[in-house]
């Protein structure tokens, strides 16, 4: 589990982030055991969705609201849209107005609140493209740097899934890339026979 999350001062936010992280690790465990359930990146996303919506927050009557491909509007034009694969709004911390001028442009709604972003990179052919992963991480960094009084991005997860071994050297380089970003962490998924040899996340 992430040491970075332990450093989140607000207890309510920290607990929520930890519960999301726990669900990501549940999917990681399934990924390691049953590769046939994950043929595409969308399969990873669907399994994450099905786990995360089970979370019960501090109030058991409210569960997180999970959305996909929400676009953050930077500079009020389509050229500056940045989409995260998944956005999880914290229960009781979401204000959703349908039909208003969209903060998420062309979606016809405005959503404000406290949330978590997840970006997914799925490797099919056994070759890890570090540049593509770093591009996605940079997107998460840019999303966190947005000055927005109405919203608060609590934490971001980069989920890297591979059908082959993710070397320690690759992990170290990617981990170094986010070292100075306290609200971003990477979770690695690979088949069980590789995970047994390399059990770091």
Description:
The chain has 201 residues and is of the alpha/beta class. The chain has one domain (3-195). Helices cover 34% and strands 29% of the residues. It has 6 helices and 5 strands. Strands 1-2-3-4-5 form a 5-stranded mixed sheet, sandwiched between helices. The N and C termini lie close together (8 Å). Residues 102-106 and 193-201 have low confidence and may be disordered.
Topology, element by element:
Elements (H helix, E strand, L loop, with lengths): L2 H4 L4 H23 L7 H12 L12 E9 L7 E18 L10 E15 L6 H15 L7 E11 L5 H10 L6 E6 L2 H4 L6
Parallel strand pairs: 3-4, 4-5
Antiparallel strand pairs: 1-2, 2-3
Helix pairs in contact: 2-3
In short:
Mean pLDDT is 81; it is low at 102-106 and 193-201.
Q: Reading side by side through the largest sheet, how are the strands ordered? A: 1-2-3-4-5
Q: Kindly state the number of beta strands.
A: 5
Number of domains: 1
The chain-level structural class is alpha/beta
Task: Report the portion of residues in β strands.
Answer: 25-35%
Count of helices? 6
Provide the gyration radius in Å.
Answer: 17 Å
Q: State the order of secondary-structure elements, H for helix, E for strand.
A: HHHEEEHEHEH
Q: Could you tell me the mean pLDDT?
A: 81
The rough form would be described as globular
Report the helical percentage. Answer: 25-40%
* Alpha-carbon distance between the two ends: 8 Å
């Amino acid at each position: 589990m992430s040491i970075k999350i332990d450093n989140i001062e607000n207890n309510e936010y920290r607990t929520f982030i930890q519960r999301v992280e726990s669900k990501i690790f549940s999917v990681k465990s399934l990924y390691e055991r049953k590769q046939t359930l994950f043929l595409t990146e969308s399969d990873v996303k669907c399994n994450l969705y099905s786990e995360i919506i089970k979370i019960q927050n501090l109030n058991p009557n409210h569960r997180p609201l999970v959305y996909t491909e929400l676009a953050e509007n930077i500079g009020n034009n389509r050229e500056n849209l940045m989409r995260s694969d998944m956005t999880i709004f914290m229960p009781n911390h979401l204000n959703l107005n349908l039909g208003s001028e969209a903060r998420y442009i062309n979606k016809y709604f405005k959503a404000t609140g406290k949330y978590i972003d997840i970006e997914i990179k799925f490797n099919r052919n056994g070759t890890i493209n570090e540049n593509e992963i770093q591009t996605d991480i940079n997107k998460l960094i840019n999303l966190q740097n947005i000055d927005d009084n109405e919203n608060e991005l609590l934490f971001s997860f980069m989920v890297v899934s591979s059908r082959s071994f993710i070397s320690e050297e690759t992990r170290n380089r990617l981990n170094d890339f986010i070292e100075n970003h306290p609200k971003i962490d990477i979770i690695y998924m690979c088949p069980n026979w590789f995970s047994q040899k390399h059990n770091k996340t």
